[in-house]
Design a protein that fits this description.
The protein is mostly helical. It contains 9 helices and no strands. It has helices spanning about 1-30, 35-70, 70-85, 85-95, 100-130, 135-165, 170-195, 200-225, 235-240. The longest helix has about 35 residues, at about 35-70.
Length: about 240
Amino acid sequence: MNAHGHSYGHSNDAGAAHGHSHGGDQGHSHGLVDPSIKRSRAGIEAVVLSLLILGATAAAQIVVFVLSGSIALLADLIHNVGDALTAVPLGVAFLMRSFKAEKYAGYFVVATIFVSACVAFGESIDRLINPQDLTHLWALAGAGVVGFLGNEAAAVVRLRAGRRLASPALVADGYHARTDGIVSLAVVASAIFVALGAPVADPLIGMVVTVVILRITWQSYLTVRADPGTPIGDDHGHAHDH
């Protein structure tokens, strides 16, 4: 009987220990600063940092544009600035601390990437039908390098923060920045091939870029579809994304 009582008491101790652990976890998760507030701040910081990087990239491209007067470069510059603004609804979602708003922002980013693919494909077809002489090749190549480095830096910031915060939308926006970087790198390749006497390479490279963008669109869509809060920051999750 005493043994039974001892056993029962031990069970209660275990229950108390369990309750203590649960209570401790709860107390920890609702500490001085609510986790959702910490996550919101971290998300906004990542969005703002990436926007500052892209802003500096655009400023550098503006300098090259003023020196060269390249209309093609101006078009690429406007495209990059417009794409950078896709981070705004995502920043608002983090400010609202709403997973639902975050998911909608993610779908908006995916739609923007898809539109970029369609535009790239349309321009490539137009260049094949109506060939144009590219001018200021040195300016295009230089601006392309700047664009690639800036977008890749922004992509790294967004992807790391997105995986750490388990934010599919922020990860998708990271892929979006990486897409723009690939496009900028393609501009460099086009300038090199045209300088070597192969202008047809410009639209052909554009078509290859379109395929790459479409792949990233699908990849981003699958990422955004994931349930908010799903761990995507570990190596296993990263492998799954790719």
